[in-house]
């Protein structure tokens, strides 16, 4: 167990963790991170340094409680279709079942998204024998709306291969998107009732400015890169994500879970390390941002640690920007 005394401390220190997806299940906070391995790897734009093999589930009775590691919940060797790189996962509860959604490279080196199930939020999870048909890229985030309809948001540039899926087929060497062209958006698909397949073909989400114009590929302060997350606040849908190259968590707001979304601003300024990845969850009457940085490892890109802090809204529903190393 790790007892937290301030927001700049990692949830756990005995392993490296990243990409936290936080949920309230059974009255407790459950966090589903990726698990960085403790070894030296050379970094590149393809993300080969992120060679994670398994998932651990973390939990806390509340924000002021100790964090418990429930141990290994799923390993790549137990997933028939997967070959390597168990990147950022997410979890959901429906049909009296807990679902773990995760990306991995298949045996053709293409990222797909799989699903595993468990009767317990702590796992272990039993994987389906095949990936979700029609799935691709990385960073699945699943949102179950108040009407019980469930949506998966996903996609990441560069090593996440999203550029390779600009058509309905995988293209190994796609045409480059020019800076003055519309940026690629994340994908969304409604899930079937059993949460194991897409109800429909994934579609691209529109993220626009206040005038309704699409964000451009060269607008690296605002355009989508990876790590989507969806939450709902006072009837509005909040799509938040990482800008990648400019290392921020930003957000856009819409009236529909499938968009379009109007860009609003920055939630989290850059942290130590190249990647930034987050989730947003309500516990009691407060909201929290879960994120990671590389402070525990002294800045190693592939050895990150999960942290969290309180998230606050302004009266107009916008989110107050968080400076992770202040206060």
From TrEMBL:
Active site, renumbered: 38 (proton acceptor), 204 (proton donor)
Molecular function as annotated in GO: xylan 1,4-beta-xylosidase activity
Record-linked Gene3D superfamilies: Glycosyl hydrolase domain, family 43
UniProt KW Disulfide bond keyword: no
InterPro entries per record: Glyco_hydro_43, Glyco_hydro_beta-prop_sf, Glycosyl_Hydrlase_43_Enz
Record-level GO BP terms: xylan catabolic process
Enzyme Commission number(s) from the entry: 3.2.1.37
Keywords from the UniProt entry: Carbohydrate metabolism, Glycosidase, Hydrolase, Polysaccharide degradation, Xylan degradation
Keyword Hydrolase set for record: yes
Class of enzymatic activity (EC top level): hydrolase
Positions marked as site (Important for catalytic activity, responsible for pKa modulation of the active site Glu and correct orientation of both the proton donor and substrate): 139
Family classification: Belongs to the glycosyl hydrolase 43 family.
Protein name per the record: Xylan 1,4-beta-xylosidase
């Amino acid at each position: 167990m790790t007892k937290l005394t301030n927001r700049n401390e990692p949830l756990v220190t005995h392993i490296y963790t990243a990409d936290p997806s936080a949920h309230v299940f059974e009255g407790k906070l459950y966090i589903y991170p990726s698990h960085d391995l403790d070894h030296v790897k050379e970094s590149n734009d393809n993300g080969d340094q992120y060679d994670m093999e398994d998932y651990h589930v973390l939990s806390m009775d509340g924000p002021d409680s100790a964090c418990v590691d429930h141990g290994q919940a799923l390993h790549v060797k137990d997933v028939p279709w997967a070959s390597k790189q168990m990147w950022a996962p997410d979890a959901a509860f429906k049909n009296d079942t807990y679902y773990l959604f995760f990306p991995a490279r298949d045996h053709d080196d293409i990222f797909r998204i799989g699903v595993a199930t468990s009767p317990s939020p702590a796992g272990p999870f039993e994987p389906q024998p095949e990936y979700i048909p029609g799935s691709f890229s990385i960073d699945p985030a699943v949102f179950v709306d108040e009407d019980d309809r469930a949506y998966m948001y996903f996609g990441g540039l560069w090593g996440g291969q999203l550029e390779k899926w600009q058509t309905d087929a995988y293209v190994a060497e796609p045409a480059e998107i020019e800076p003055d062209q519309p940026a690629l958006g994340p994908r969304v698909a409604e899930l079937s009732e059993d949460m194991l397949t897409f109800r429909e073909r994934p579609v691209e989400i529109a993220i626009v400015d206040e005038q309704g114009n699409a964000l451009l590929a060269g607008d690296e302060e605002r355009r989508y890169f990876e790590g989507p997350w969806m939450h709902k606040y006072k009837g509005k849908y909040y799509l938040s994500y990482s800008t990648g190259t400019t290392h921020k968590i930003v957000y856009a707001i819409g009236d529909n879970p499938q968009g379009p979304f109007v860009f609003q601003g920055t939630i989290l300024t850059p942290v130590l390390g190249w990647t930034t990845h987050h989730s947003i969850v309500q516990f009691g009457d407060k909201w929290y941002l879960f994120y990671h940085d590389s402070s525990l490892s002294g800045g190693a890109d592939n050895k990150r640690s999960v942290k969290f802090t309180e998230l606050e809204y302004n009266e107009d529903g916008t989110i107050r920007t968080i400076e992770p190393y202040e206060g």
